[in-house]
Amino acid sequence: MMMIMYLKRLLLPFVPEEGDNRGIGTVEMILILVVLIGLVLIFKQQLTTIVNNLFKTITTRSNAI
Q1: How many Cβ atoms are within 10 Å of 21's Cβ, its own excluded?
Q2: What is the DSSP letter of 17?
Q3: pTM of the entire structure?
Q4: HSE, side-chain direction, 13 A CA sphere, residue 5
Q5: All structural domains of the chain with their residue ranges
Q6: How far apart are CA 40 and CA 55, in angstroms?
Q7: Burial track 27-62 (b if 16+ CB lie within 10 A, e otherwise)
Q8: 14-42: per-residue pLDDT in tens?
Q9: Distance of CA 44 to CAs 9, 25, 39, 57, Å?
């Protein structure tokens, strides 16, 4: 539920107002979300590795200070 609220707040500025045809439509927004979710699923292993290495580096360097 929190994720939906966050995405709604994040994408709300791009939703066109009544009578405004210049914004992103619902279909386009759904397609963008599907592509982003697909990329996250495809590169999940690599993203997890990068984040874990980043936190290890931060922990190691903060202990050295």
Answers
A1: 6
A2: P
A3: 0.49
A4: 2
A5: 24-65
A6: 19
A7: eeeeeeeeeeeeeeeeeeeeeeeeeeeeeeeeeeee
A8: 665 665 566 678 888 889 999 999 999 99
A9: 24, 28, 8, 20
